[in-house]
From TrEMBL:
Residues 26-163 form the N-acetyltransferase domain. Coiled coil: none annotated. Keywords: Acyltransferase, Transferase. The keyword Cytoplasm does not apply. It comes from the Bacteria. This is GNAT family N-acetyltransferase. The keyword Signal does not apply. It is an enzyme of class 2 (transferase). Residues 31-53 are annotated as: Disordered.
Length: 177
């Protein structure tokens, strides 16, 4: 397990899946803000990569996030689009509603940076988030990510186009910080 100050990132367990399905995926508004794909229902037990134990895609590493104090499930996190030629990858995370706003997200980003840079030897990590997601923007910036640009009206979210912000962190920025 990867450890931060408050959170652990471990492999997905079978009994995580119904919780993540109910609290994250089945909240259509939330799920639509966290994915660039259109929302659609997922049946219990379906072989849906995001919510299954399927680890066959080597470019996408999925973790369950747990509280280091008691092991409680807090959410889901991933390093995706891992590109070993250009040595970059993207970060994604989603916490259960009851786990938000308590500093866990900032710690998850730190642990994903440790995994990307130290364990996987990557040079660049990237986060894309909606411009109206202050918690994600702040969790990224607290870890040294810088805003590199705005993709205007890049995301269709529940009836409107929303700007997307691209943030990046290079390994040398992190070493300097
Ligand atoms: C985005 C998310 C991962 C952030 O994690 P979190 O644990 O809630 O965030 P933290 O508690 O670490 O807070 C990070 C910063 O944002 C601020 N913040 C938290 N919630 C906020 C809110 N609703 N509005 C404004 N600022 C907020 C915190 O004060 C903190 O700032 P500080 O370090 O200056 O004090 C989490 O809220 C979440 O899962 N949201 C739903 C899914 C989602 O949006 N995922 C990201 C998709 S790209």
């Amino acid at each position: 397990m990867l450890r931060g100050d408050k959170v652990g990132l471990r492999a997905r367990h079978e009994d995580d899946i119904p919780v993540l399905l109910t609290e994250l995926h089945d909240d259509v508004a939330n799920a639509s803000r966290s994915s660039t794909d259109p929302w659609r229902p997922i049946s219990p037990g379906a072989k849906e990569p995001g919510l299954s134990l399927d680890h066959t895609n080597e470019a996408h590493v999925r973790f369950s996030v747990v509280d280091l104090d008691d092991g409680a499930l807090l959410g889901s996190a991933s390093l995706w689009g891992i590109d070993n030629h250009n040595r970059l990858a993207h970060i994604g995370l989603e916490l259960r509603p009851s786990a938000r706003g308590k500093g866990y997200g900032t710690d998850v980003v730190a642990v994903l940076c440790h995994y990307g840079f130290d364990v996987r030897g990557l040079r660049r990590l990237q986060i894309e988030t909606l411009a109206d997601n202050p918690a994600m923007l702040r969790a990224a910036e607290r870890n040294g990510f810088v805003r590199e640009g705005v993709l205007r009206s890049a995301a269709w979210v529940m009836g409107e186009f929303v700007d997307e912000v691209v943030l990046g962190l290079l390994v040398e920025d992190r070493q300097a910080g």
